[in-house]
């Protein structure tokens, strides 16, 4: 046991770590997830959210409660391991740091004097005095012995382990306590401490296989609860006992070995594990073979490596036809195989003797026959059958087929049926009857593994396959497809455009010539002669049509033969339409608004031409000479090739709606021009140039003269209606006066006779 002492300093409420360097003694073997020590952080504000971090995150992790855990399993070196623990305020991002130094614990037994000196030289926390730049070590106060406790102790409990003491107990009444996993953290209650004497005890037996070491922290406070010493770490190591038997990973192990294998051939590896310490004799295993069945041709056909569990052959004579399987009983013993003190367990190893390829595959016939229609793919044209005396469905029995001649272009492949082992000759590329009418293939059969040494392939491992190609009616095809034609737009209806013909690949069939028809013509511009394939126009070709995309117009035609069954093929005609200057430019937009005063009154207009260069811009803009009011009231200036500005020439123009004709000329040869009418709304504007009487102008519709003319028309229409009503009333009065002068007896209507008869005689007439 070596003394361990920690630093004591006056505590004040200052947020941060109470020490700059924290030292702890831990076991050399560190396991992933194992708690190592507690770091103490003082926060004066209980609401602060502190996040702990490590400078070596791949090795150490700090929990929110300040417990340092091992992130992975590793062995500590003989030299102290150092890393930095940081604490950061999540809100203010303020950060504090403390250096942690881990020293591996000494050996449990046989600790040399040199090792004892290493423990005494553990670096204890450093304290920097105020008004002093160098670091000085404080006085050491604590005396803590290292603790090693064997597992499965029978007690009695509680069992005293060590007494923790502070040098200040001579002048102060102190209270001792321990914290950490095993004390006040799960599993709780394993370790207790007498608060007065500082005696640390264990309350029940320990199990190293559950927890290999405990990391506690000892505290010393006065009767008022004030800390008088810095907390110090205590490591309690659980010493392993041989209380676990070896356990095989599998109770039955399966392995294979080829027949005829030489001595020393590797067969398989069996593995057992022991929950005891693998670095001590309690966990060191040794293997051996207890029995072998059957025992022929030798009772010792196999041996096992006592440390690794590798099973190898030790004798020759493995023959699958005689013995197909061996069963071995394997024993694993700990304590390095000590039969007196070691614990043992057994497992079964089943070794199957596998077949080797000592029988080659042989074809059942020297020549196989098949046929295939032309242009068909993925069809089986022939089945190749073989026999093999090796064990079925093994690499030594499974056949592979290889073509050695007769297919230079790779039109066939041979697949193997996994159940019957037959070779399936399959077409993978189309075959043209007019080019090849028959194929004669040379095929060789092999196994998935090479033949055993000294075995050769007989002539029966090679065969010939004769394949006949059947002629079928094929579809005609256009040449070229697609066909590109360049033509200026504007070609008149009835003009011959081009000839688009197809070819029939069936040279050996008796059939009439091809017939042509139109399949797709979106704009209905074309027709094709059904006999010679001559294409003529039925309408004017227009590049600006909605059916033309990127100057290209596509039409599809069909060529059909009269074979059995009839076949047809399609071809695409692509007409690249060249632009001509057949469209005059127009103004855009059609309506605009400006102010009735001279400033601001500019209107931006754009010339739009469906044609393309060189039949489009740059454009020329001008105003017509008539009527004279146009040039008197307006002026136009070109600002770019496609844009111009229209503005008032006079200082003031009465509010209203005006039609301003604009003559726009493109750059084509010859030029194309048009007069576009721009409807301009002249209105009163505010200081920002925005119209303030647009509604009134829109309501007016036209100018003042137009409104007066409309009102006059309405008045005249009303007068005509009134005159018509007066005339109708006067006519009614005259009709009533005439009716009073007629005698009712002389009413003509009373002298009219009605007959419901047809075909009357002369008297009736």
From TrEMBL:
Topology with respect to the bilayer: Single-pass type I membrane protein
Keywords per UniProt: Calcium, Cell adhesion, Cell junction, Cell membrane, Glycoprotein, Membrane, Metal-binding, Repeat, Signal, Transmembrane, Transmembrane helix
Highest classification ranks of the organism: Eukaryota, Metazoa, Chordata, Craniata, Vertebrata
GO annotation (BP), single: cell-cell adhesion mediated by cadherin
Bilayer-crossing regions: 706-728
Species: Tauraco erythrolophus
Name of the protein this chain belongs to: Cadherin-2
Localisation per UniProt entry: Cell junction, Adherens junction; Cell junction, Desmosome; Cell membrane, Sarcolemma; Cell membrane
SMART domains per UniProt: CA (SM00112), Cadherin_pro (SM01055)
Record InterPro entries: Cadherin (IPR039808), Cadherin-like_dom (IPR002126), Cadherin-like_sf (IPR015919), Cadherin_CS (IPR020894), Cadherin_pro_dom (IPR014868)
Gene Ontology cellular component annotations, sorted alphabetically: adherens junction; apical part of cell; catenin complex; cell surface; cytoplasm; desmosome; intercalated disc; lamellipodium
Molecular-function GO term, any one: calcium ion binding
Cadherin domain mapped to chain residues: 141-248, 249-363, 364-478, 479-587, 586-692
